[in-house]
Amino acid sequence: MSGRSKKGILLLVVLGAVLMSAFNFALEKTNSTEFCTSCHTMQTNLKELKETVHYSSASGVHAGCADCHVPKAFIPKMIAKVMAAKDVYHEILGTIDTPEKYEKHRWDMASRVWAKMKANDSRECRSCHSFDRMDLSAQDKMARKRHDAAMEKGKTCIDCHKGIAHEEPDEPDEEEDEAKEDNSKDDKKDGETKT
User: Between the CA of residue 99 and those of 49, 84, 88, 103, 111, what are the distances in Å?
Assistant: First the structure.
């Protein structure tokens, strides 16, 4: 191998290490609660989180945004990052850039998160919580009964714990849903007549 080839390989290794470090740094920064709540609409979520045991507890254990919303494994983490980009997109577009607009879309956003958690068996919850490690005898009677039943029925955390870290939004009335469908149909008709 010539001296030139060795230098080229060394340069590629150094460049690869620098790029890998930069990528890791970016991942860590975008996993911080400070980053996640830097859009002003996410301040609502931060305020709610701060009022829960997930943020402040007697034992000092603290869960930030990424602990609940970003998987640990690389591929699912990258998928979550891409999906989270839609929140930034809608913030920029103005879809959720005010508290009123945010609240208008809150049920749909929460429902998508719940569906994801249901589909992955509350994977991020299970980073800290596990039926296997629960000491049911240390729980009050109601919690013990419900956790025991949940284990028997194969339920996952989100089946019972919606609204545990953020306020649970009110489910829209059927009339509101029908009005949304009618508006959507009208928008489609308007689009068809304009083309």
Answer: 16, 19, 15, 6, 18
pLDDT band for position 41 (cuts 50, 70, 90): confident
- Spatial CA neighbour of 114 closest among 73, 155, 163: 163
Q: Report, in angstroms and rounded to the nearest whole number, the Rg of the chain calculated over CA atoms.
A: 22
The answer to whether residue 186 is domain-embedded is no
Classify residue 110 by burial, with Cβ atoms within 10 Å: 0-12, 13-18, 19+. middle
Q: How many domains does the chain have?
A: 1
Quick one: which H or E segment has residue 26?
Answer: helix 3-30
Report d(CA 70, CA 81) in Å as an integer.
8
Residue 1: both structure tokens together? 């191998």
